[in-house]
Amino acid sequence: MIVVTAATGRLGRTTAEALLARGVAPSEVRLAARSPERLADFAARGFAVAAADYERADTLEAAFAGADTVLLISSMGVDADRLRHHRNAIEAARRAGVRRIVYTSATHPSADSRFEWAGAHRLTEALLADSGLAWTILRDNAYAANNAGLYEQARHSGVLALPGVDAAVAYVTHEDVAAAAAAVLATSGHDGRIYEITGPEAVDGHRIAAMLGEVFGRPIGAVDLPLADFAQGLRAAGLPEFVVSGVTSFHAALAAGEYAAVSDDVARLTGRPAQPLRTYLQTLA
Fold first, then answer.
1. What is the pTM of this model?
2. Domain map of the chain by residue range?
3. pLDDT at residue 166, rounded to an integer
4. Of 123, 137, 189, 202, which has the fewest Cβ atoms less than 10 A away?
5. What CATH fold (topology level) applies to the domain 2-140+173-197+262-272?
């Protein structure tokens, strides 16, 4: 049995579909979430569904019972909350007799990262290393869909205003992250491995603007958006301050080149090349 946590989110749902595509029977996949009623569509297709709240260790242990492998999708919140959630999940997995945890970490989870939430990823990786369980780490690059709001603004204004516009980023699609996760979940030989999950190339904001121009059918320029202005836009959208701070720090990390390295791990795991950012941008037409 494979358990996917945070299964109502985009990555959880996409991973469930990717497991099906690999030939895993839905009855062998348990989708765990705080609001399992939101998974009724998957339950109707034969997936097992369970309630699991990162704050409640008893629900995690029950959701993990009888499972061989758990995909631990990182939680939301400030670092202290995220680390507590992940510790709860790891300890519950050990009590439930789980053999292996696959964890969705992030690129460059180092102490010197400008990304505030990198700390929780780094410490969670350390918890797994000391857990006594088999583990696999998926260090995911920036999602291709992260800047969807900025791309939509560019459609109307003709200008892509992007923090760190000159910095190259190896954007990866949710579909490729899910496909890589499904490959690791459904096959052996991944214990103790760390995979860098990236797109096939690193692109800067100027190239993104040029691609958007082709997609939107109009010239799109590119300018640097100061981080302070970016943060203010997030506040104006009503996002909580911890999200404003975390996302702004993430863009500071991107601007510093922390997410520029390209890996072929997606291709090696899935047997096909990772999708370029252009593939995602074309869905915005």
1. 0.95
2. 2-140+173-197+262-272
3. 97
4. 189
5. Rossmann fold (3.40.50)
